[in-house]
Design goal:
12 strands, Isopropylmalate Dehydrogenase, two-stranded antiparallel sheet
């Protein structure tokens, strides 16, 4: 029996308009080849472009669509372009949908990696708290405060995601912190993570590491990591750093997952310098589509996309400028579809 999935899909802003169609085409292709499931795509708008047209970056209708869909795929939102007095639309989405786990996978491709290195890691980041809580205020004219929120509930549930991923991988979680500087908030985070590991995942190795040491080890020996678990800001920075070590954010997929809702997006942003030039890299969004298929339980179809991307990278004929090539967005998309 065929399984039907409703997929909410949006380009967002910037290069998303040039990329999203290739992700949809790849998904349609693997669904046809697999034959065991069907995808219904429901387009919607969000981001700065939506704000300019309607006055809302993310409408309640868009949030409800994402909440009711089986999964959502989008590219990027130009949050920096929004007026400062308005809330960050990305935070509105993540908080409103309670998609508390941001997951970014990073792996080496032989074309880009030093000889013999085989990095394969996942960064799991708490997505709704930390320094991105949105609580900021001025103190007089010449000072401002940002509040870092860390809760036991938030720390425990993100820890379970990281430990479960590690159980299916190499059984090691590196917990990143800066407890000497943030003794109360990072102390709570570490206590909660260690309690979950000790009581629910005794088979998983826990390694604690200061965030500056983690940044250094990522540069020197990224292959030593399996699953990195971090609070919001630390995980955001480290996942981007790890992506640059393995080819750049143009090939780095991501997902935001909650108890009932999942939203998939590449690690990169709207890339205003590339928008409209036809040279944006679609691979990160294609791999985010693969991640979405895995989440939906269609792992064989997801593997088809992963393999097709790996073949395109290995052959090297169609690579966008960020990867050292001269191909256009459409040429890379067409090459992946041919491999499929």
């Amino acid at each position: 029996m065929n399984r039907d999935y409703r997929i909410a899909i949006s380009p967002g802003d910037g290069v998303g308009h040039e990329i999203i169609g290739w992700a949809q085409k790849a998904l349609e292709t693997v669904a046809r080849l697999d034959g065991g499931f069907r995808l219904e795509f429901i387009p919607f708008t969000m981001g700065f472009g939506a704000y300019q047209k309607t006055g809302e970056a993310i409408s309640q209708a868009a949030l409800e669509l994402m909440r009711s869909a089986d999964a959502t795929l989008f590219v990027a939102i130009a949050a920096a372009e929004m007026p400062r007095h308005l809330p960050n639309p990305i935070r509105v989405m993540r908080g409103g949908l309670d998609i508390y786990a941001n997951i970014r996978s990073v792996k080496d491709y032989p074309r880009f990696a030093p000889e013999g290195r085989r990095t394969d890691l996942v960064v799991v980041r708490e997505n709704t708290e930390g320094f991105y809580s949105g609580i900021e205020y001025r103190v007089g004219e010449d000072a401002a405060c940002a509040v870092r929120v860390v809760t036991r509930k938030g720390s425990e549930r993100i820890a379970r995601i990281a430990f479960q991923l590690a159980r299916d991988r190499r059984k090691k979680v590196t917990v990143v912190h800066k407890m000497p500087a943030h003794r109360i908030s990072d102390g709570l985070f570490l206590d909660a993570v260690e309690k979950v590991g000790r009581e629910e995942f005794p088979d998983i190795e826990i390694e604690k590491m200061l965030v500056d040491a983690a940044a250094a080890h990522l540069i020197r020996h990224p292959e030593r990591f399996d699953v990195i678990l971090a609070t919001n800001a630390y995980g955001d920075i480290l996942s981007d750093e790890a992506s640059e070590l393995t080819g750049g954010v143009g090939i780095a997929p991501g997902g935001n997952i909650g108890e009932k809702v999942a939203v998939f997006e590449p690690a990169h942003g709207t890339a205003p310098g590339r928008a409209g030039r036809g040279i944006a890299n679609p691979i990160a969004t294609l791999l985010s589509a693969k991640f979405m298929l895995d989440y939906l339980g269609q792992k064989e179809a997801g593997k088809r996309i992963q393999t097709a991307v790996e073949q395109v990278i290995a052959k090297g004929e169609f690579l966008t400028p960020d990867l050292g090539g001269k191909a256009t967005t459409d040429q890379v998309g067409e090459a992946v579809i041919r491999e499929l």
